[in-house]
């Protein structure tokens, strides 16, 4: 059978996904999108358009009302506020804690922790207390936690919202590099249009539907024209 090289595999595939809160408020309304494996896509939309709800549905934290979600690999989630995610006193302990359910040996756990810290350029921080890290470093630890669990699909919900300019560009550039280096797939929610420079593609969500998608530079212009 001939293989069509132009067909890319989707790592995240969402079809006609709908979700409503118990109050009856519809947040996602037959939302359809897909992210190709190995790519870094961004999700944009005004406050309340359903971005966080969509990410939580993708992570299996909420149950859809209808529609399909297919995700090819293990998911790692990164929240806006790393203090809601990092629970142990030190960097190494936090990443190791995330591996408890994997039932690894001590040596294997240490190997995974070190490997993941190296992937986010924090190799020197194994024993560093979490409180002594900058916001950007905390987000890198959260990402290392996902890498250590061998997550290949990263869902990041406004991970730069609490960071200053330099930490913001560092984080987005390093996530792009990580995605390319390790052939991961990432869906990154943001309000900051300059981050689109690092994306392979973007979706624009409005009232629970994808109303535009594709080239990030074109979408950046669409949003700049609106503001
Ligand atoms: N836990 C919740 N219970 C009820 N409504 C919620 C809850 N979380 C969010 N919402 C509502 O769902 C809508 C979409 O929210 P959200 O997905 O957080 O939007 P975004 O991340 O795009 O700002 C908003 O109207 C919000 O008020
Ligand atoms: Mg949100």
Automatic annotation (TrEMBL):
Transmembrane segments: none annotated. Residues 12-224 form the ABC transporter domain. The keyword Ribonucleoprotein does not apply. CDD domains: ABC_cobalt_CbiO_domain1. It comes from the Bacteria. Keywords: ATP-binding, Nucleotide-binding, Transport. PROSITE patterns: ABC_TRANSPORTER_1, ABC_TRANSPORTER_2. The keyword Protease does not apply. One of its GO terms (molecular function) is ATP binding. InterPro entries: AAA+_ATPase, ABC_transporter-like_ATP-bd, ABC_transporter-like_CS, ABC_transpr_CbiO/EcfA_su, Molybdenum_import_ModC, P-loop_NTPase. This is ABC transporter ATP-binding protein.
């Amino acid at each position: 059978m001939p293989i069509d090289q132009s067909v890319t595999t989707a790592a995240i595939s969402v079809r006609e996904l709908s979700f409503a809160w118990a109050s009856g408020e519809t947040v996602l309304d037959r939302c359809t999108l897909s992210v190709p494996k190995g790519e870094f896509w961004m999700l944009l939309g005004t406050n309340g358009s359903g971005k966080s709800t969509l990410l939580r549905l993708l992570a299996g934290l909420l149950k859809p009302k209808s529609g399909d979600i297919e995700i090819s690999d293990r998911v790692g989630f990164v929240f806006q506020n790393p203090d809601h995610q990092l629970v142990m006193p030190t960097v190494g302990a936090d990443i190791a804690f995330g591996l408890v359910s994997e039932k690894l040996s001590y040596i294997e756990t240490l190997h995974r922790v070190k490997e993941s810290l190296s992937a986010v350029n924090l190799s020197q921080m194994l024993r560093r207390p979490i409180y002594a890290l900058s916001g950007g470093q905390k987000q890198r630890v959260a990402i290392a936690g996902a890498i250590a669990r061998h997550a290949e699909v990263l869902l990041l919900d406004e991970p730069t919202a609490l960071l200053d300019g330099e930490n913001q560009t560092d984080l987005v550039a390093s996530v792009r590099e990580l995605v390319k280096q390790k052939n991961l797939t990432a869906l990154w929610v943001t309000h900051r249009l300059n981050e689109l420079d690092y994306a392979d593609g973007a979706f624009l969500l409005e009232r629970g539907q994808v109303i535009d998608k594709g080239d990030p530079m074109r979408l950046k212009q669409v949003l700049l024209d609106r503001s």
